[in-house]
Amino acid sequence: MSIDYYREGEPVADTKAPAGPISERWEKRRFSGRLVNPANRRKLRVIVVGTGLAGASAAATLGELGYRVANYCFQDSARRAHSIAAQGGINAAKNYRNDGDSVHRLFYDTVKGGDFRSRESNVHRLAEVSTEIIDQCVAQGVPFAREYGGLLDNRSFGGAQVSRTFYARGQTGQQLLLGAYQALQRQVAAGTVDLHTRHEMLELVVVDGRARGIVVRDLVTGEITTELADAVVLASGGYGNVFFLSTNAKGCNVTASWRAHRKGAYFANPCYTQIHPTCIPQSGDHQSKLTLMSESLRNDGRVWVPKSKHDERHPADIPEDERDYYLERRYPAFGNLVPRDIASRAAKVVCDEGHGVGPGGLGVYLDFADAIKRLGKKAVEAKYGNLFDMYERITGENPYERPMRIYPAVHYTMGGLWVDYDLSSNIPGLFVTGEANFSDHGANRLGASALMQGLSDGYFVLPNTISDYLADGPFEAVSEDHEDVQAARREVDERIAFFLGNDGDRTVDSFHRELGKIMWEYCGMERTDEGLRKAIGLIRDLKAEFYKRVKVTGKAEELNQQLEKAGRVADFFELGELMCIDALHRTESCGGHFRAESQTDEGEAKRDDDNFSYVAAWEYGEDAPVLHKESLVFEYVKPTQRSYK
Amino acid sequence: MKLKLRIWRQADADAKGRMVAYELDEVSEDASFLEMLDVLNERLISEGEDPVAFDHDCREGICGACSLVIDGQPHGPQAATTTCQLHMRKFRDGDSIDIEPWRAGAFPVIKDLVVDRSAFDRIIQAGGYISAPTGTAPDAHAVPIPKQDADAAFSAAACIGCGACVAACPNGSGMLFMGAKVAHLGLTPQGQPERATRVLGMVAAHDEAGFGGCTNTGECAAACPKEIGLDVIGRLNRDFRKAAARAA
To answer: A178 to each of A53, B83, B128, B238, how far by Cα in Å?
Structure first.
């Protein structure tokens, strides 16, 4: 590997995870972690950035515990965080179905699903906590789907052979988020949480090696303020929008995480991106986002393409024996329910071979004709009605009569800021929860696991682990005049002044689109050594062009959406380069990271456990990033080649 | 397709706004309404003009951020559809389209098409929750809930808090929004202990925020992208009368 791209530093280790039997580790850590006396909690100030599942649940719970919490979101209301858009469901090892589920099985499935690139201790804790989440949400009034007997309904989801997914029609994320949002608003009313909407974190304040605050911009007035605290929690979500087109909300960005990274926080496994197999294909150049169709649809829909290439017949005119149900053919044991990474790549393979359908041949059919025959239209409508309606609104086609067209799209990012078992980054006092951290999903996230992790981190893990850090506080008061605080503030001011003063002629979006195309082409579903090297060069050139030619209209002291975007896209450039470097250095295939040079004879992803069984934690470097390896140890789930055949 | 747009432009909360005309050529009928505005904004920026500010985020009809009055109708002409899910194939070549912000006393304009909907959050703060601090919950199967109640609670809980109901109401009332939350929580056994205090608190916050009362016009339910029905207002009124009588 060329040393131009990065340097290798000392290994890094998770020093907080207790040893001993895995099922006792979480209990052990809760006991060994120090507590904060209730009377002292109100002297401690904690900043939480983000109000999605991981942020709202953490802010509400910390408020309930009596800490003084300041919570920030860029949206106009905490309820709009992008967790709201999660459709399918949330996993929990309740074994309500008596189908062989258990904490250990959920743990096992998640480690295996993550292609053996996650930490056993973290994943086991996630599986343990999963059952408490469902109890908590039901107590809050979350209207999960129920059966006629009044008990909760479950379904099998995203490659699982047991029914452990709880859901609320196709709006599970919305209902869980509203539960957390309402708990948060209750704390706002109680005065324990200060909530600041339409505020964006633009810089992390690190003083004497500890995270002590953030610099935020009021998005309405443009006012920049410095907020100081004893600890900072980033729950600011994932970075899928580096691809421009993704299923993320338009506002999702990496800025909070990236500013922390530039201040010293390690960024782990940035190349692990989840490409979701069931999204509505792109329709034209105006496209601003891609819409996910919940993969619960794969429970009843059958995926196929025409056997003959470039077949432009109406799907109804293609007889059964001229259709290739390629997932059922290639993976008879799991069929249409193979995990996301496998389903996505299989779709790419058939489209690359010329079997794709719809505009540009970038689509495959997801067909409900058999399900409608078997269950009746009414039952299908009850299960998926809202998804079918959404599909029709976007495409103008009726999926009851004509199979849906789907294609993979960027959906979730498993990588994120490096954290230890306590969810602490390597900067003391900086904690990271939810999609913004990296820890639980390895190289591939299973369906219905994101909601579980967000709420696990926010309701149950962080509030228990952060006390061990806060037990040393309150920390010495930091003055706004402190040199490091002033420096952070200055960086923000200078960046804004640059964008508004730049005499450019190209819009922010035009650069973002171009960056996204590079990322999708070379760091998307399939990566090669040659392609990634090329991408790094292209990104560097485009970034230079961006700083020369970007044009931002308006003023700093007003609602200025172009200015907001400019800062986010600037950070995406740097992240995109790091993603490509990470992908380049990892010459194996694993989970969502498919390296064309590393595949089995049958074209499946081939891991290289001898050389890559580690977390790649990247330290920011002005000239080149520094790689710190955290080696992964598997005591309970022995790494095997994943097979869903 | 070609379009003639007239868009509400207002520099800030204190400025006087006005409708400004724009023409747009070559709009794809597969574009969403917001993508059409993206195209306009890209052009405005290139011409050195201030782009049109509007709220949006998920663009899949669930976050509730988008909020445009299109030809006099909140979220435009398609039933049960948010602005972001409205596609240009619902319009015709040569159409003239008026685009305005939500107009309601409780939702002041911040800039162009962006309004301040924080009054909705204040209504929730006043009781739109179940007090269940983290960690106190019994097993999820401890209390069965009849499926029809759970389904009805879900239908009310589907509210996305966009505020179209307020924008559509001649009185600028927030009672459909409030009723949806009162119905959602009131239909679950967990919501019973706080049922009376909840409705009293929320109604007080609603009135305090400057929303008007309900006169059964029904425009709110017609505009609701999530098809929340007027029955939730009936429920809200019943709960309120009962709670107020008991409190008196």
So the answer is: 9, 21, 10, 24
